Amino acid sequence: MLRWFGAAFLVLLLVLCLRASTLDSMQPEIAPVAVVEVDSGGLLERFRGGLKIPTVSRQPGEGMDTEAFQAFRAYLAQHYPRVHDRLELELISRHSLLFRWPGGEPSLPGTVLLAHQDVVPVDTGSEGDWDHPPYEAVVADGYIWGRGSLDDKFGLFSILEAVEGLIADGFHPRRTLYLAFGHDEEVGGGDGAVQIARLFAERGWTIALVVDEGGAIADGMVPGLDAPVAIVGVAEKGYMSALLEVDGMGGHSSAPPNQSAIGILASAIVKLEDNRFPMRFDGATRAFFERGIGPESSFGMRVIYGNLWLFEPLVLAMLDRSPMMAAMVRTTTAPTIFHAGLKENVLPARAQATVNFRLLPGEKGDEVLEEVRRIISDERITVSMAGRAREASPSSRIDSRAWATLAETIREVFPEAIVAPYLLLGGTDSRYFRDLCDCVYRFLPIELEPDGLRRAHGTNERIPVAGLVDGARFYRRLIENADQATLDSDESQ
Ligand SMILES: [Zn+2]
């Protein structure tokens, strides 16, 4: 019996090691690119000037700072004269910019680079918490500080620098190049990216590759992995908010019922937090471990990532310890608004709460809502959808020539980085292009600090000065590489 057990154990060990050693690396072998000349001093000043123009996005109905966007557009025209001279420029919904550089082979599907002009507002009252004022583009401690420095003026200016440089050097694209700079990404992209994508469909403009913000070079993201990881978003989570309401419970606080409207609603919220949605380990997140970082990890970790059939529960338990990682494997539950009561001696007649859910790919808003009702199981509470649900975007291909071209370009400019697909937790303009192309990727060529995401929409947004040159080099090589490569959709044209 013991011998049988010992033999079975040995076989298992053998299988584990075998699978660990056959994990296939998806990292392209590529030489770092010879230096691309970038005018780093001029670039810094052009970028700083752009940060000083507060192109703030406001919620629909709050009015728009038209002058800021006009000033920003004039600023771009002044500082990128070649781009404005050589490329066709079309204004979409008055403020979004669509540049088109017709390629020498018009039948080839184009390359689309996305970025957005708008930035989120600085929270009222938080201005004083900034180490440097948000719209002065101060250079200090090796960083450029300011709202929009990371999200997303870094991307926008890096793209323009790259194209301006290519024109100056006499480059002529084979493939048509499109630059689409929306003006309302931070409030959903309805007037910008949505309309631009619609134009592509109407005009029959075909696309081989789309690159937008939404990934970065992340350091120290994965325990046990020293190399920086270039995380490339290949899908985006969906979005749905539920409104929970309790009605008709008012009265004097001197004779309260056993359970008040506030109590009923609070216990519903507790139930939701205690019964989170189940974890699911598939799609982009599974590919991140199995194909992305797995093959590049230490042997011990390769045994785990190469044998997810056995170790999946272990990996999920590990992911569950970090809110960021856990969000990649489950539909998340986030109570965000709670309204009840006006006066200290009056029981509120109504209590309302909003709970925001971020949906895993494949999950539908009304199914999640149904599950919410089941978890709460309290007929005193009305559960409805607040606004409309948005399903997750389907995953882009990672077996494509377009993916390989992007991965090679990343490795040319960041030779140390491990390129890995991942599931984006937020939303970007690029989701509207997914129907037009199955090679839509989200990546910014910048090393992200561990708290970079918090800074991006919070206080003290900044980027390292040294990152600006990498940004311009990256887009330049990306445009050249995509132009020269034979991409997946070329043959079908
Ligand atoms: Zn953004």
Written account of the structure:
- It contains 15 helices and 19 strands.
- It is α/β, with parallel strands linked by helices.
- The chain folds into 2 domains: 40-226 and 395-490, Aminopeptidase (3-Layer(aba) Sandwich), CATH 3.40.630; 235-390, 2-Layer Sandwich (Alpha-Beta Plaits).
- The strands form 5 sheets. A 6-stranded mixed sheet has the order 1-2-6-3-7-17. A 4-stranded mixed sheet has the order 16-9-8-18. It has a 4-stranded antiparallel sheet with strand order 12-14-10-15, with helices on one face.
- Strand 1 (88-92) and strand 2 form a beta hairpin.
- Helix 2 crosses helix 5.
- The mean pLDDT is 93.
- The structure holds zinc ion.
- Zinc ion binds at residues 116, 151-152, 185, 213.
The tally of structural domains comes to 2
**CATH topology-level name of the largest domain:** Aminopeptidase
Instruction: Supply the CATH superfamily name of the largest domain.
Output: Zn peptidases
Which ligands accompany this protein?
Answer: zinc ion
Residues in β-strands, percent:
15-25%
Specify the CATH class of the largest domain. Alpha Beta
Number of strands: 19
Helix content: 25-40%
> How far do the termini sit from each other?
65 Å
Radius of gyration from the alpha-carbon trace, in angstroms: 25 Å
Give the low-pLDDT segments: none
Helix/strand structural class: alpha/beta
Query: How is the largest sheet built, in terms of strand order?
Result: 1-2-6-3-7-17
Give the integer mean of the pLDDT values.
Answer: 93
